[in-house]
Amino acid sequence: MSESLRKEGAPVLPKEPPPLTDREFTGYQKLVYREAGIWLSPAKKALLVGRVSRRLRELGGLSFGAYLQQAEEDAVERVRLLDALCTHETHFFREPRHFEFLEREVLPRWRERGDTGTGEGRRVRVWSAGCSSGEEPFTLAMVLRHHLPAEEDWDIQVLATDLSTRVLERARQALWPLEKAEGIPRNYLRAYMLRGVGSQEGNMKAGPELRSLVRFQRVNLNDGQGLVGRFDLIFCRNVLIYFDAASKARAVERLLNHLSPHGLLFLGHSESLTGPGWGVRTVMPTVYAPRLQNRETTRKG
């Protein structure tokens, strides 16, 4: 639009970037794979265009090629790029069989003997890897606190990690639309969630007791930097499906390195660890334990 035709005070919109070329897409594929272990198939080209275009407009209409160069050179911008490309789909008590298994078999056994099997007493450490907007780690916190009460001196901590800094900030707020409550059993909802009033009407927030059990950290499963300690339970569900065979092997190795010898690893319904090379045994579909673990953790019946 010429200057003479533009209405006074009308915003000047950034021009649309030129189309993403195949060569540029290859550059993005290599960068994302190197940084996150996630392989963007050619079918993901449209997804990349849709999600990165918003950032290009924020930068004044930068081209895909120029932005790729900026992301290569700027670590902060690389994190922004990965944030934009991450897919986050979750809800409370997702894949409920896992939580039923915990409630029926694992947690009652821990409570009865006063120990998780590690010899560290009533200390429970859980890792939610790929925690998205927080529904999974707060589900775990509710289930653990309900079955392992504070008055019995159970020390519970849930580590919630994700690749995306943006989604971690949302999870830290522990605030969700009220419709998210549909997946939460009523007794848990009454005990652990607060209903929003006034400006927060239509929302719910995890109560202070629940929030005290969960801490957040950015962790990239592709490199595993900054993660220490071992965990009694590791939930890494619907994350490995985004990796190719090589990056999946690296990620699983890191997960198992942080799993207690008496711990359990939970994967998503479409993920599995098959073959002897993993050093695990199947406790139930998509739930695994180190092969040398005591047989008492095997699912009954």
TrEMBL record:
Domain named CheR-type methyltransferase: residues: 13-275
Q: Give the catalysed reaction(s), semicolon-separated.
A: L-glutamyl-[protein] + S-adenosyl-L-methionine = [protein]-L-glutamate 5-O-methyl ester + S-adenosyl-L-homocysteine
Q: Which PANTHER family match?
A: CHEMOTAXIS PROTEIN METHYLTRANSFERASE
Q: Give the Enzyme Commission number.
A: 2.1.1.80
Q: Does the keyword Methyltransferase apply?
A: yes
Q: Does the record carry Methyltransferase as a key word? A: yes
Record's superkingdom? Bacteria
Q: Which UniProt keywords apply?
A: Methyltransferase, S-adenosyl-L-methionine, Transferase
Return the SUPFAM superfamilies for the record: Chemotaxis receptor methyltransferase CheR, N-terminal domain, S-adenosyl-L-methionine-dependent methyltransferases
Name under which the protein is recorded: protein-glutamate O-methyltransferase
Q: Which Gene3D superfamilies match?
A: Chemotaxis receptor methyltransferase CheR, N-terminal domain, Vaccinia Virus protein VP39
**What organism does the UniProt record list as the source?**
Archangium lansingense
- What is the main EC category here? transferase
